[in-house]
Amino acid sequence: MPLTDAPMPQTILLASDHAAIELKAALADWLRAEGHEVRDLGPETADRVDYPDYGYKLATAVAADDTAVGIALCGSGIGISIAVNRVAGCRCALVNEPLSAALAREHNDANVIAMGARLTGIDMAKACVSAFLATPFGGGRHGPRVEKLSNPPA
Predict the structure, then answer these.
(1) pTM score
(2) Is residue 39 a known part of a binding site?
(3) pLDDT score for 5
(4) What is the DSSP string of 35-86?
C-alpha cells in the first residue's frame, strides 16, 4: 500500500513494547521502502519490556525534533499512548482506522499516533499511517484548541 498524496519524505520515529515488535518491524520496512527516514527506538528483541519506557523514549525524541513524527505501538496501544502524552510537546492519538488518524492530524495537530498490535492488522496499520502522514494540520479554529492542550489551567 503506497503512501498516496503524502508530503515529502519525513523522519518517522517508531517505538514499541514486546507485543508489537513484529508490527513495528513491518511498518519500518514499508516506510523505508516509501523513502522515509525511519528511526527505530526499540526494542530490538521480543523479550518482555515495559511500554512506558519506550513511550517516554519516543516522546522525548519527537518533542526534541519538530520535523519528526512518531508511531507508538504496544499490545492495545492504550498504555504507550498514555506514556507519550505525559511528555510536554507531544500530542499522541490512539487510532484504529484511517479517519481517526487523519482527524488526529487535522484537528489536533497530533505528532504521534499509537496503535495496538493485538487489535490492528498490518494493512489497517499502514492505512492509518498513510492517512496520518498525508493529512496536514487544519489550523483555523483548531489552533487555539491545540494551544490549550499545551497549556492546561492551573
Answers:
(1) 0.92
(2) no
(3) 46
(4) T-EEEE-S-SSSS---HHHHHHHHHHHHHH-TTEEEEEEESSSHHHHHHHHT
CA distance 104 to 110: 5
Taking 70 as the pLDDT cut, the residues of the chain under it are: 1-9
Q: Which of 74, 90, 92, 128 is catalytic?
A: 74
Residue 128 among the catalytic residues: no
Q: Which residues does 83 contact at the CB level (< 8 Å), separation at least 6?
A: 51, 52, 54, 55, 56, 59, 72
Q: Report residue 64 as a C-alpha cell.
A: 526534541
The reported pLDDT for the residue numbered 3 is: 43
List, in order of start, the domains of the chain with CATH numbers.
11-149 (3.40.1400.10)
Task: Of 53, 90, 49, give the one whose Cα is nearest residue 70.
Answer: 90
pLDDT digits (tens, 9 = 90+) for 36-57: 999 999 999 999 999 999 999 9
79 is in an annotated binding site: yes
Whether 107 sits among the annotated catalytic residues: the reply is: yes
Would strands 11-16 and 37-40 be described as parallel, antiparallel, or unpaired? parallel
121 annotated binding-site participant: no
Q: Please, are residues 66 and 11 in contact by the beta-carbon 8 Å criterion?
A: no
Check whether 122 is labelled as a binding-site residue: no
